[in-house]
Amino acid sequence: MFLSFLTAPRHGTQLFLFVLGAVLVFAAVMAALHTLPPRAKRWLIVACTFVAGLFYLLEFMLPPGTLMPPPGPGEGPVTDNFLSRYVEPVGYVTQIIAAVAIGLGVINLARVNSAPLLRFRPGWQNSLAFFTGLIVMLVVGLWRWKLLLNVTTVAQEKAVNESTIGSLYRFLFDGLYSNLGGTVFALLAFYIVSASYRAFRLRSAEATLMMITAFIVMLGNVPVGTAYLTGWIPDGHWYSFLKVEHMSDWIMNTPNMAAQRALIFGIMMGVIAVSLRIWLSLERGRFFEQEL
Amino acid sequence: MEAGLGSDRTRRTLYLLLAAAIALPFFAKTVIPPVVGREARALYEAVESVPPNKIIVLSLEFEAGTIGENLPQTRALMNHMMKSGKRFAIMGFDPMGPVFGQREAEDLAKRWNRPYGKYWVNWGYKTAVVQTLKAMIRDIPGTMVTDHRGTPLSKLPVMDGIKDAKDVGLIIDVTPSALYEAWMAYFAGPGGVKMGVAPTAVMVSDIFPYLDSGQIVGMLKGLAGAAQYESLVFGRDARERGITWMTSVSMTHILIIALIILGNILEIAARRRRTAT
Fold first, then answer.
1. What is the CATH number of the domain that holds B93?
2. What is the 3-state secondary structure (H, E, C) of B140-177?
3. Are B200 and B270 contained in the same domain?
4. Is the pLDDT of residue B2 over 60?
5. B149·A227 Cβ contact <8 A
6. Is B202 in the same domain as B257?
7. ipTM over 0.90 threshold
8. Structural domain of residue B170, as residue ranges?
């Protein structure tokens, strides 16, 4: 009930007052937490982590219908338990924590980049590029968002996109962001070519096997292999398995799938072990044993 | 540095050859027609089999980094859905995916005369993956509420009769991440909805166990998958984006294979020289 009250959608003045109230409550809670001794802070984190983990574990594990009224006439079978109704509001808490973490990330980046920029230390140009990109994209993005707030038709959206702010946004998004993102990813191709030239050597039986496998899978996935190299081999004959796509399919569907299943099983066992350690606050290391 | 395998000159020559292999096919007038694999064909048939009273959900989870693969996949799928008049909804748990999807859909809507709101809708970017997917099983309009422009979904004809997971004919996750696992676990599995995936090529091997188990009905394997899908929609010699781009990738693969062979010849020669001395 209380969670539903907190997470209900609000607009206008009510929304503003809620945001203001949340900020004040957040500041007061943080100030109060700051005065706690380190041992108490640690136990508080341990308790919160345990309760949050327990909620999701129970919600997933408890069978449908647990502590729920029986379905009425004409209703389908019950698919939820008594905790399921809280999954959505509890999820909002996760989102809020994530949003605060993004804010902290921006503050941290600004702190790290402001010192070199103010003192013209080596690499200050990078910091200048960071602040320019952050501020320009933020201002233009928010401005465009404000213009789009009342848009309900395609024609209105087109008008916004063709305005000065819309054009500037397109320049920043299509002209810079998209191309830079694609370029950085595409640089991988150069590393792969360089690596293929150096790494795929017939040094041992295992390396040879790997190279032959890579050859077949590579050729089986591109038209030049499937259409030209073995494209002349007809289907439906005993020797059709020699078609490069069939050999590639066999490699992917048999040895690869067995290995992938083993990997998935192993990874999930590891995930369970690590999750248990974090949930029960047994994890040790850089982020878990620092003085709070 | 000496002009051996690891020299700067060798590296620059390799990079130049690669750039040429990628760029030259764009100027050539021919394309290498793809041979359609069974995963792409299965996804094509899954889209074809969606009845008119159901909607296809196209979940776009990519950013600018993987548009080289994920955008042609998105375009190929949208071309098919618009050509065959299937209703579809764009959404994404990554903020950029629905933005890229909207642009492609707007471009193709003119080509196929499929207006927004009647044949397709953009539900926009959503947060909280698990909660959204669980809520969508029970109530799609109640979970999405409005489209990306803030128009109530009840005002859009494309949403007529779409209430819950039973009204979804197929989900296709276009993704460079493992988010398809969440779709399988929290929506496709519990809701009994068929699912396809269009991953980047590097992720393809991870997905075969789910194809084998039937949890995923079909897949587009990176850019090659997009090209294969386009050849199903338009014919083998079509000069669509995926088929054209795949010609460049084919050239690159030929170059890589040639370089592997050359690297081994040089290695064997060097080994023999060392043994002789």
1. 3.40.50
2. HHHHHCECCCCCEHHHCHHHCCCCCHHHEEEEEEEECC
3. no
4. no
5. no
6. no
7. no
8. 38-238
Q: State yes or no: pLDDT of B1 exceeds 60.
A: no
B192 interfaces chain A, CB cutoff of 8 Å: no
CA-based nearest residue to B101, from B128, B83, B118, B81: B81
The verdict on B238 touching A (C-beta cutoff 8 Å) is no
The pLDDT tens digits of the residues spanning A258-287 come to 999 999 999 999 999 999 999 998 887 766
Do B147 and B265 have their domain in common? Answer: no
pLDDT tens, B129-183?
988 998 899 899 999 999 988 889 999 999 999 999 999 999 999 999 999 999 9
Are residues B226 and B254 located together in one domain of the fold?
no
pLDDT for B26: 86
Count: domains in chain B: 2
CB within 8 Å: A181 and B68:
no
Look at B64 and A261 and tell me if their CB atoms are within 8 Å: no
Exposure class string for B225-256: b at 16+ Cβ within 10 A, else e: bbbbbbbbbbebebebbbbbbbbbbbbbbbbb
Task: Tell whether B155 and B254 lie within a shared domain.
Answer: no
Query: What distance in Å separates residue A221's CA from the closest CA in chain B?
Result: 7
